[in-house]
């Protein structure tokens, strides 16, 4: 059995795009050339790797197996290329960082200070939800991922960074604002503005209410903490957000944190890499910087609860 590296690249492009024409555009090849290479690859392995479902091209079981190994192989190849580049100039590099939506309130500050110290390093920052972060880890797409609880079904290296308390917020003039030790039953009937399904915050909220034997009713689902904050200020319901996201609103007294049974929900930020994912010297330097700075950032935000 002979499989060329170019065939693996072509296969991965078709698997990614689920379309021969788009794969050809991605690789600057013609569509017939892509089709011929895939056919030769299938002949070499003796198995069908794709099948048609309407207008889509989807992977067979054999295709999915090859895709999993292909992701790792291309990641290793990219690591080799980056290593050779870094050996020429260790003061330059490119880092791809992906982070959970609510981490934007601290990861951007860390990135700004890091970039001032390392002007030759370019960082690409993708802010997205948990579902997308897990998919990126599966496919070795990001160098570093900042997220809540790492998925247990992947081989990962993770390190806890700091606490990420989820707090219950209300308009500053809400009747419960300022009260102490509010029973959870008193807020169970309230309307909530929450993150969309697929976010780590939403999953943590659902687990919390289930543990206390309650359900929550959402009037609105939002894809960002900023939208949730403005909706709560407008009186559309209570919200549950990361403490990191409301520093300004607490200082200006436009929002209040309610002292409710079981809150804050204690979660943690982690910095995560996929096992087998090579880290360039630039990526390793950024990882070490984030870990070193995390404790100071956490202490600053913890003061908001005092």
From TrEMBL:
PANTHER family: HTH-TYPE TRANSCRIPTIONAL ACTIVATOR CMPR, HTH-TYPE TRANSCRIPTIONAL REGULATOR. SUPFAM superfamilies: Periplasmic binding protein-like II, Winged helix' DNA-binding domain. It comes from the Bacteria. InterPro entries: LysR_HTH_N, LysR_subst-bd, WH-like_DNA-bd_sf, WH_DNA-bd_sf. Residues 3-60 form the HTH lysR-type domain. Gene3D superfamilies: 3.40.190.290, Winged helix-like DNA-binding domain superfamily/Winged helix DNA-binding domain (1.10.10.10). Belongs to the LysR transcriptional regulatory family. CDD domains: PBP2_CbbR_RubisCO_like (cd08419). Transmembrane segments: none annotated. The keyword Transcription applies. Keywords: DNA-binding, Transcription, Transcription regulation. This is LysR family transcriptional regulator. One of its GO terms (molecular function) is DNA-binding transcription factor activity.
């Amino acid at each position: 059995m002979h499989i060329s590296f170019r065939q693996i690249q072509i296969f991965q492009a078709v698997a990614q795009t689920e379309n021969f024409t788009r794969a050809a555009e991605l690789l600057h090849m013609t569509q017939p050339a892509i089709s011929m290479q895939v056919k030769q690859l299938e002949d070499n392995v003796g198995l069908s790797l794709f099948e048609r479902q309407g207008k889509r091209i989807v992977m067979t079981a054999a295709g999915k197996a090859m895709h999993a190994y292909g992701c790792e192989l291309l990641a290793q190849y990219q690591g080799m290329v980056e290593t050779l580049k870094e050996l020429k100039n260790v003061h330059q590099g490119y880092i791809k960082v992906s982070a959970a939506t609510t981490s934007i309130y601290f990861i951007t500050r860390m990135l700004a200070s890091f970039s001032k110290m390392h002007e030759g390093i370019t960082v690409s920052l993708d802010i997205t939800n948990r579902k997308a972060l897990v998919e990126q880890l599966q496919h070795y797409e990001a160098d570093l991922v900042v997220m809540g609880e790492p998925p247990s079904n992947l081989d990962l290296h993770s390190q806890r960074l700091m606490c990420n308390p989820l707090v219950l917020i209300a308009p500053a003039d809400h009747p419960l604002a300022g009260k102490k030790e509010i029973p959870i039953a008193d807020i169970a009937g309230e309307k909530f503005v929450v993150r969309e399904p697929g976010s780590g915050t939403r999953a943590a909220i659902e687990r919390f209410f289930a543990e206390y034997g309650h359900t929550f009713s959402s009037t609105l689902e939002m894809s960002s903490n900023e939208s949730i904050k403005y909706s709560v200020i407008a009186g559309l319901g209570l919200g549950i957000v990361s403490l990191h996201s409301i520093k300004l609103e607490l200082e200006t007294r436009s929002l209040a944190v309610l002292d409710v049974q079981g809150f804050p929900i204690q979660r943690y930020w982690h910095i995560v890499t996929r096992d087998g994912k090579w880290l360039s010297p630039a990526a390793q330097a950024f990882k070490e910087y984030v870990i070193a700075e995390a404790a100071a950032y956490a202490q600053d935000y913890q003061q908001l609860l005092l």
